[in-house]
């Protein structure tokens, strides 16, 4: 994969951010996520696209709703507050992305 500055990446840990620097000597990429600079190994990158919307996968959470399916233009989800009624929204309407990897990482399990 040929990495390019100003493109967006998705890491194995589920982070999505914009590339700001690449060091092939040290094998690291520096990217911006939520106004913070994060460093990761080039080997940890699973995808690169020109927009963060193109890095979305089924199972991610968009604007607080789980992605059930998607195509080039639309995200298909359901609303648990409304009997899981299906609904659709355009990719341009995306405000927040929570990847399934980060969601799973932050689940609190309570064992009795």
Q: Explain this structure to me?
A:
By secondary structure, this protein is mainly beta. It has 2 domains: 45 residues; 50 residues. The strands form 3 sheets. The chain has a 5-stranded antiparallel sheet with strand order 4-3-2-1-5, with no helix packed on it. A 3-stranded antiparallel sheet has the order 7-6-11. It has a 3-stranded antiparallel sheet with strand order 8-9-10, with no helix packed on it. A hairpin with a 5-residue loop joins strand 9 and strand 10. The longest helix has 6 residues. The model has no long low-confidence stretch (mean pLDDT 91).
Q: What's the gist of this structure?
A:
This protein is mainly β. Helix content is 5%, strand content 44%. It has one helix spanning 100-105; strands spanning 8-11, 16-23, 28-33, 36-41, 45-49, 61-62, 65-66, 69-70, 74-79, 85-90, 97-98.
